[in-house]
Amino acid sequence: MDFYNLVLRRQSVRKYTNKKVARDLILKCIESARLAPSASNSQPWHFIVVDEEPYLSEVAQATITAALPINKFALQAPCIVVIVVEKPKLITRLAGFIKQRDFPWIDLGIAAEHFCLQATELGLGTCMIGWFNEKKVKKIIKIPPNKRVGLLITVGYPPDDYKLREKIRKPLNAIISFNKY
Ligand SMILES: Cc1cc2nc3c(=O)[nH]c(=O)nc-3n(C[C@H](O)[C@H](O)[C@H](O)COP(=O)(O)O)c2cc1C
Hints:
The chain is built from seven helices and four strands, in the order ααβαβααβαβα. The chain has helices at residues 3-9, 23-34, 55-61, 90-99, 103-121, 134-140, 172-175; strands spanning 45-50, 79-85, 125-129, 148-156. The protein has a four-stranded antiparallel β-sheet, with helices on both faces. α2 (23-34) crosses α5 (103-121). The longest helix is centred in the middle third of the chain and has 19 residues, at 103-121.
């Protein structure tokens, strides 16, 4: 699959069959995430593969809040990958402080997309989840209280009839300019 096609095929999948995802496929996705670039090559991430009960159901439940129950689909996912933000190198921390940039969170987003693109190429469906109860997730899977959870990614097989949606995006001319803002 050429790169542009892969980008078109990657979409947020919010319906999964109950087929388990083999761990070697998840490892391949994490391998692609591992190779992602990061500020000063700090690689400030840790991936927790949640694919066993009771952790899986409990983490899925922690993405559903009464105020905004948007993530009910997470309960169907046979695997949820939790990405923890790790401390970057001292040089990155200094640079981030001086320039007021949160490099680790930028890095994490890039790695997450590497993960999702690789998963798409393997025929898997993913959805990044940024709306979750962080405190609960940390408690369930024993993440130290001083760490932050950056993102969750649900992973599974979309049903055969799951349609590839047209991308809803701003047009190119609305997001681009040459030489000046
Ligand atoms: C940082 C981030 C957080 C997101 N959080 C959620 C979420 O909590 N629940 C959800 O259903 N989708 C979530 N999404 C998916 C977006 O809604 C989705 O990427 C966007 O609407 C574009 O659709 P597409 O992924 O199908 O191309 C998140 C995406 C990103 C990048």
